[in-house]
Amino acid sequence: MTGSGPAEPAAVLPGAAPAVPPAPPGAAQVFGDRLPVLEAYAALLAGAGVERGLLGPREAPRLWERHLLNCAGLGDLLAPGQRVADLGAGAGLPGLVLAAARPDLHVVLVEPLLRRAVFLTEAVDALGLPNAEVRRARAEELVADAPALALDAVTARAVAPVARLVGWALPLLPVGGRLLALKGARAQEELDAAEESVRRAGGTGARVIGVGEDSLGTWGQVVVVERGTPASPGGGRAPRRGRAAGAPRPQGGARGRTAGSTPSRAPRTPTTPAPGSPSTATSRTPAGPASPPGPTSPARRSPTARRPGGDR
Questions:
Q1: Can you point out the beta strands (E) in the chain?
Q2: How do residues 229-256 score in pLDDT, each as one tens digit?
Q3: Superfamily covering domain 25-227
Q4: In the chain, what are the domain boundaries?
Q5: H-type helices in 52-194, by residue range?
Q6: What is the mean pLDDT of residues 139-163?
Q7: Contact 106/84 with Cβ under 8 angstroms?
Q8: Using only C-alpha atoms, what is the Rg of the chain?
């Protein structure tokens, strides 16, 4: 990983320790002419970084092997000119390493805690990195700014499990953008456990990629998840109520009846009135002049007439 030109000597923040572990031989091959900037950053971490609690004191002797070179491997997955957001940037690992080693990148350092954001801002100024900016915010607070950020990738290291990372990172990316999470030996196991979370967040092409070279100290495992289209809450359109999914629509007109079926209600059976009782049916005759009753027409029974047979 080399830059575009020789670096100017970087300023050192107050509190930076003068005694810093020397860069291993492989660092010159990895960082090229940007090595002086990385050496200044190492001094910053060993001094002000430890004093302010951003880095444990036991980490200072192994800054190069465990942190700086380890983060450098991520650069293998970033094309020239890309825009990157580093979530939970903390002390700047890996965001500041990428910005220092790759001046062609634009790196947004996202950090919600004040003391860390202050350290990052001072480090960006002290190292002379015009291609880096600090945003004191949580990832979810930047979703509205995602179009303006125009990110190609989101990086993370030791921030959260993949199952949570995808929910924070993917909304910041356009379709095709990538989450690059630097992980340890259990990267594949962690990704397998996050399968459902990746799907719900709209992730696709999830995989583990090895980067860097072991001989140079840059080897690492990166979980890569691309931004696709988020899944619907129900996992798809629910079937219509009252009809099984995939079942054919009933034929024959009336809802709920199939072709050739008979109505469930039996036809009405006409009733015959008992002898001597008044008819319950009312007949209708065509409209026209009424004819007088013939001589054989029976007299109409009174509603109060008794049935034959007398009183009961």
A1: 83-87, 106-110, 132-135, 153-157, 178-183, 203-211, 220-227
A2: 876 555 444 334 444 444 455 454 444 4
A3: Vaccinia Virus protein VP39 (3.40.50.150)
A4: 25-227
A5: 69-72, 95-101, 114-127, 146-149, 162-169, 187-193
A6: 96
A7: yes
A8: 41
